[in-house]
Write a structure and sequence with these properties.
By secondary structure, the chain is mainly α. The protein has a single domain, classed as Winged helix-like DNA-binding domain superfamily/Winged helix DNA-binding domain (Arc Repressor Mutant, subunit A). It contains four helices and two strands; from the N terminus they run H-H-H-E-E-H. Strands 1-2 form a two-stranded antiparallel ribbon. The radius of gyration is 12 Å and the shape is globular.
């Protein structure tokens, strides 16, 4: 994954809430397309940042408590820094 976007930051906020969410919930909550949410969860899962439950009808995701990969940790830090630049509404 390249540089994080505002959408990535918003999805990260949702995931860090501690609840289990689907890609649909992530996309709707962050205002991004379903494809963007799916790519984001696939990246985070592959890098060890996200836990997945294969629930029916759709999988659910939550941030993992284990240490993420170096690439994932760097991406998450960039997303958090980006979030600090968003003006409060």
């Amino acid at each position: 994954m390249k540089k994080p976007t505002i959408g990535h930051f918003k999805m990260l906020q949702i995931l860090e809430s501690g609840s289990w969410v689907s890609n649909d919930q992530l996309a709707n909550g962050a205002g991004v397309s379903l494809l963007v949410a799916q790519r984001f969860t696939r990246f985070l899962s592959r890098e060890g940042c996200l836990e997945r439950i294969d629930a029916h009808p759709k999988p659910l995701f939550s941030m993992t408590q284990s240490k993420p990969s170096e690439d994932c940790a760097r991406f998450l830090e960039l997303a958090k820094q980006l979030g600090k630049t968003i003006p409060a509404t």
